[in-house]
């Protein structure tokens, strides 16, 4: 009997002991990865996020062909869904197998770890000048431009015109009070109608909250100091909690993810939601909901602020890949490449030439006008990469708790990093 | 017929270790290569310090382990795990014993019923989890719809978003997907019981319950062992159900140690591969202890001698 | 026993059987119905049991999608490959440990059991590194080896149990006839352990069919992803094709159920043959 336990114990111990010995040989740290020896790489790898099932892969496959023709290098393309790309990229980096180009919604931590090429090494001057200033600003870490935007999106208030009409509301709200009134009137229609769909679940709560706090004169960060628990932000979160308590939102907004809020809006039961161009594309395709996008209302009736988002195509610094990487960006930022991609995926341009090219598109007008002045989350601060996760995991708790407490804790988390 | 006498005669005899290991070589190679080597890597990772990007920045000693042990949510996560494993496994075994008893009986359409029982197992767990998210849904869920229609409830029940119900809702799915495998292990076990044994008991005039209690159950012991140990391991390690059904809820209030480990690495504010690896080692040790204790209780050595 | 109570009991059993089948099938019935709706209809309040508008061409869309066909092929290949490997490797190990005593036997069984306790979720990073070093990232072989490795324990264990339960006398007779160990295994033992083999086969097949995390990490090429990973493309934060997701799911469940239907018949046949003795 005890013999068996002994065997078990011995085995566990020996396998752990073995492991300890293994540790001694050292898991090679940040030392370059493949392609070493100063030789020129003949092939580079792109890991890209999947924006849409039909377009993303098709675009990059086509791009790889063109790239091969123009530069002579091979481009190995790997498409990963958004759900999994964090895990995938982390696994690759742990194994010193980072791709040459990685498409992600963050970059600053990678820049901080010294893994990336900066613009001066790999982005042709004219492309750099073409990228919108606001994206250069948020793409710059420690004085250098690392976060090269692949596409952008800006949020707007989507409202269901049919429901608005039924409820006797003539125009989209300009202030938060008007928004609350509109939500109340739509909720009062009964039949399961919901005034405002508020997604504060872990998927993207930082996005929803950004839209609100920017329109209350709030910020995540002011200069070098975090302002997560500023008076404006506490007021904002309290307003949202009140919306929930008054029954003007869908059930349980603290546990509703963005995709679920979109689904609700698509079902025609929701008066208002924060949307962006991919949602518009799907609504247009379905054709079942009459909606309009409008500038997001502000608390005090001032000028509406928009929350912008951009994803990044960052370049990993490896021996011998500089030229190939540079050629990649040279091609990508050619107007007919980057803008084709953006157009197909239904997003917004990141370059001056793109804004110009899209300017006659009526559908995008509401976003394009605000895009150059869009406010972003502080993606240029590596701390934000962790704060964002803390916000996602904790913000929803304010719906059942004290908003100030929640924001105080988040502020603390940010300051501790 | 003393069981001991039967058991002793099961071994054919001695063989030289060399010859024996030749037969075990392929299995050993596979296990060493695919399971133990990565496990060693996991241990190494648990002793490393990692940046949020996954880059190893130095050695951490045991600090990842202390960080996990001091994590404010650890207690609730462990409690969830215990409830999750115990309830799912116990309910699965009880229900499966009944199902197996039913499915070895001869009745028209039995084969079709057996096929139906296999379906939750044949469907990918990811799909089944996704499906149940929809079935449970507050707005579009068919379960709420039916409950409302028959007048049991007025407003929808938030099966996945109400803290009092989330774990229970996940447990139901956990049981549902564990039933097929367990039931079939029991069917195989029941079928392996020699017909003459049951016949003898029947001739002796033992009641159905007595026959079940004193003949069937003892002879089902190997199947029960397989089913309980494996279910404990699978349910403990189960990832998709908890991860998918709980994805709307902030924090760790409804996580088990497996999803906790995953979130530590990729989704939480820690986003720390080293800490996650330490939690992974902790998981293995935990299940090891549980199984060792269980085997001691049921006296596994006796079975395999 | 007289005929009357038996037949009433039989009717009761049958009814119970129907009820069980319904409980197990109901969720998947919803899935089939959802695959025949428009994506918006899946998410409409209040829900309707039957589609408000039947949409049959979703299946054509999914099957006509080259990516889906690739995913399906990968899943089938990996599931069959892993199952074959597990059975071939597990039989000799289980037989040897069940029938003979030798040095290290206990240790082997314990190690097998321990390997069962590791979750691939925790080991993906190590697996990636290992297969990278073997130059096997993005190969079916890597996935087959991994699935075989993680499911070996169960197969060894269950076959070990079945071998142990066969009376020694059966073998001794054959040994006296001068048969070799291998011949005994093949001609005498394996036919008697068919239920165990069937259980191990189904089990491994389904586990490999359902595996997600390792495939996600190792299969970089879109065409080589299995269905479990591919499914993720249908519903994302940016676009939601619920109809296609569920149609693909239905298509993915069918081959496994068919496979089981075939094997289950063998199981019943083998069992009847075995239990006459």
TrEMBL record, chain A:
Keywords from the UniProt entry: Signal, Sugar transport, Transport
Endpoints of the signal sequence: 1-19
Keyword Signal among UniProt keywords: yes
Pfam families: SBP_bac_8 (PF13416)
InterPro entries recorded: Bact_solute-bd_prot1 (IPR050490), SBP (IPR006059)
Keyword Transport: yes
PANTHER family reported for this sequence: ABC TRANSPORTER SUBSTRATE-BINDING PROTEIN (PTHR43649:SF30), ARABINOSE-BINDING PROTEIN-RELATED (PTHR43649)
Name by which UniProt lists this protein: Multiple sugar transport system substrate-binding protein
TrEMBL record, chain B:
Chief site of localization: membrane
Domain named ABC transmembrane type-1: residues: 78-294
Cell membrane keyword on record: yes
UniProt keywords, alphabetically: Cell membrane, Membrane, Transmembrane, Transmembrane helix, Transport
Subcellular localization(s) per the UniProt record: Cell membrane
PROSITE patterns the UniProt entry points to: ABC_TM1
A Pfam cross-reference name: BPD_transp_1
Membrane topology term: Multi-pass membrane protein
Gene Ontology terms describing biological process: transmembrane transport
Record keyword Transmembrane present: yes
Domain of life of the source: Bacteria
Membrane-spanning intervals of the chain: 21-40, 82-103, 115-136, 167-193, 219-243, 273-295
Record-linked InterPro entries: MetI-like (IPR000515), MetI-like_sf (IPR035906), UgpAE/MalFG_permease (IPR050809)
GO CC annotation, single: plasma membrane
Family: Belongs to the binding-protein-dependent transport system permease family.
PANTHER family in the cross-refs: BLL4140 PROTEIN, DIACETYLCHITOBIOSE UPTAKE SYSTEM PERMEASE PROTEIN DASB
Name by which UniProt lists this protein: Carbohydrate ABC transporter membrane protein 1 (CUT1 family)
UniProtKB/TrEMBL annotation, chain C:
UniProt topology in membrane: Multi-pass membrane protein
Superkingdom: Bacteria
Membrane spanning residue stretches: 12-33, 76-95, 107-128, 140-159, 196-220, 245-263
Location of this chain's protein in the cell: Cell membrane
KW Cell cycle (keyword) present: no
Presence of the UniProt keyword Transmembrane helix in the record: yes
Biological process according to GO: transmembrane transport
Gene3D superfamilies noted in UniProt: MetI-like
InterPro entries, sorted: BP-dep_ABC_trans_perm (IPR050901), MetI-like (IPR000515), MetI-like_sf (IPR035906)
Keyword terms: Cell membrane, Membrane, Transmembrane, Transmembrane helix, Transport
Domain ABC transmembrane type-1, residue spans: 72-263
GO cellular component: plasma membrane
Recorded family membership: Belongs to the binding-protein-dependent transport system permease family.
Name the record gives this protein: Carbohydrate ABC transporter membrane protein 2 (CUT1 family)
Species for this entry: Marihabitans asiaticum
């Amino acid at each position: 009997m005890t013999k068996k336990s002994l065997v078990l114990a011995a085995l566990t111990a020996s396998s752990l002991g073995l492991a300890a010995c293994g540790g001694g040989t050292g898991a090679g740290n940040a030392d370059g990865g493949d392609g070493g020896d100063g030789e020129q790489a003949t092939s580079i790898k792109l890991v890209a996020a999947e924006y849409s099932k039909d377009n993303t892969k098709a675009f990059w496959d086509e791009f790889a062909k063109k790239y091969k023709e123009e530069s002579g290098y091979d481009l190995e393309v790997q498409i990963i869904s958004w759900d999994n790309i964090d895990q995938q990229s982390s696994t690759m980096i742990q194994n010193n197998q980072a791709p040459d180009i990685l498409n992600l919604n963050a970059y600053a931590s990678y820049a901080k770890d010294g893994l990336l090429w900066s613009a001066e090494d790999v982005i042709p001057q004219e492309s750099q000048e073409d990228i919108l200033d606001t994206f250069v600003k948020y793409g710059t870490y420690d004085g250098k431009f690392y976060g090269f935007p692949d596409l952008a999106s800006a949020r707007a208030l989507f409202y269901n015109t049919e429901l608005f009409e039924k409820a006797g509301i003539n125009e989209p709200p300009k202030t938060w009070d008007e928004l609350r009134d509109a939500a109340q009137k739509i909720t009062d229609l009964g039949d399961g109608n919901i005034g405002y769909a508020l997604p504060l679940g872990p998927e993207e709560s930082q996005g929803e909250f950004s839209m609100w706090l920017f329109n209350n004169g709030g910020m995540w960060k002011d200069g070098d100091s975090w302002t997560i628990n500023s008076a404006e932000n506490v007021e904002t979160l309290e307003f949202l909690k009140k919306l929930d308590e008054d029954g003007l939102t869908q059930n349980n907004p603290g546990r509703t993810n963005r995709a679920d809020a979109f689904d609700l809006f698509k079902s025609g039961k929701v008066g208002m939601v924060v949307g962006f161009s991919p949602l518009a594309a799907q609504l247009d395709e379905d054709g079942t909901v009459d909606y309009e996008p409008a500038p997001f209302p502000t608390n005090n009736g001032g000028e509406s602020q928009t929350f912008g988002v951009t994803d990044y195509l960052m370049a990993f610094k490896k021996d011998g890949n500089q030229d190939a990487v540079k050629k990649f960006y040279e091609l990508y930022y050619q107007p007919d490449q980057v803008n084709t991609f953006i157009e197909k995926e239904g997003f917004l341009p990141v370059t001056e030439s793109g804004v110009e090219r899209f300017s006659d598109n009526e559908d995008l007008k509401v976003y394009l006008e605000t895009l150059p002045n869009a406010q972003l989350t502080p993606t240029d601060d590596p701390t934000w990469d962790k704060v964002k996760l803390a916000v996602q995991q904790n913000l929803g708790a304010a719906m059942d708790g004290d908003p100030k407490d929640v924001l105080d804790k988040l502020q603390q988390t940010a300051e501790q990093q | 017929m003393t069981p001991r006498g039967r058991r002793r005669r099961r071994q054919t005899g001695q063989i030289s270790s060399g010859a024996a290991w030749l037969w075990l070589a392929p299995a050993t190679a596979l296990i060493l290569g695919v399971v133990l080597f990565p496990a060693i890597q996991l241990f190494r990772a648990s002793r490393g310090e990692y940046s949020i990007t996954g880059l190893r920045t130095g050695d951490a000693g045991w600090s990842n382990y202390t960080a996990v042990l001091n994590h404010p949510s650890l207690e609730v996560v462990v409690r969830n795990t215990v409830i999750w494993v115990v309830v799912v496994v116990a309910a699965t075994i009880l229900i499966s014993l009944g199902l197996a008893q039913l499915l070895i009986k001869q009745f028209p359409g039995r084969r079709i019923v057996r096929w139906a029982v296999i379906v939750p197992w044949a469907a990918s767990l990811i799909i089944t989890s996704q499906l149940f998210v929809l079935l449970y849904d507050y707005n579009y869920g068919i379960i709420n719809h039916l409950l409302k229609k028959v007048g049991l409830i007025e407003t929808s029940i938030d099966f996945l978003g109400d803290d009092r119900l989330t774990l229970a809702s996940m447990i139901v799915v956990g049981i549902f997907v564990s039933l097929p495998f367990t039931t079939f292990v029991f069917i195989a076990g029941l079928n392996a019981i020699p017909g003459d044994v049951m016949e003898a008991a029947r001739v002796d005039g033992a009641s159905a319950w007595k026959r079940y209690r004193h003949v069937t159950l003892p002879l089902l012991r190997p199947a029960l062992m397989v089913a309980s140990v494996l279910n404990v391991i699978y349910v403990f390690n189960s990832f998709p159900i908890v991860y998918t059904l709980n994805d709307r809820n902030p924090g760790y209030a409804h996580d088990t140690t497996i999803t906790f480990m995953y979130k530590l690495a990729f989704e939480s504010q820690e986003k720390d591969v080293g800490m996650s690896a330490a939690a992974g080692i902790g998981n293995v040790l935990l299940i090891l202890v549980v199984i060792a204790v269980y085997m001691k209780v049921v006296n596994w050595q006796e079975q395999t001698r | 026993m007289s005929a009357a109570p038996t037949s009433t009991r039989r009717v009761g059993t049958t009814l119970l059987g129907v009820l069980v089948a319904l409980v197990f099938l109901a969720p998947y019935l919803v899935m089939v119905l959802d695959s025949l709706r428009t994506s918006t209809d899946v998410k409409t309040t209040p829900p309707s049991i039957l589609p408000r508008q039947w949409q049959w061409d979703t299946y054509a869309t999914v099957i006509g999608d080259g990516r889906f066909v690739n995913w399906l092929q990968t899943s089938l290949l990996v599931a069959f490959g892993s199952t074959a490997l597990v059975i071939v490797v597990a039989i000799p190990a289980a037989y040897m440990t069940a029938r003979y005593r030798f040095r290290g036997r206990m240790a082997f069984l314990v190690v097998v059991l321990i390997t069962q306790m590791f979750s691939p979720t925790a080991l993906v990073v190590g697996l990636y590194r290992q297969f990278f070093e073997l130059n096997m990232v993005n190969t079916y072989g890597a996935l087959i080896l991994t699935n075989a490795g993680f499911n070996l324990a169960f197969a060894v264990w269950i076959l070990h149990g079945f071998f142990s339960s066969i009376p020694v006398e059966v073998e001794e007779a054959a040994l006296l006839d001068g048969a070799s160990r291998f011949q005994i295994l093949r001609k005498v033992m394996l036919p008697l352990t068919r239920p165990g083999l069937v259980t191990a086969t189904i089990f491994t097949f389904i586990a490999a069919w359902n595996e997600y995390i390792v495939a996600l990490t190792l299969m970089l090429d879109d065409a080589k992803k299995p269905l479990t990973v591919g499914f993720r493309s249908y519903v994302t934060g940016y676009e939601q094709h619920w109809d296609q997701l569920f149609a693909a799911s239905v298509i993915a469940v069918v081959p496994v159920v068919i496979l089981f239907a075939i094997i289950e018949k063998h199981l019943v046949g083998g069992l009847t043959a075995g239990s006459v003795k």
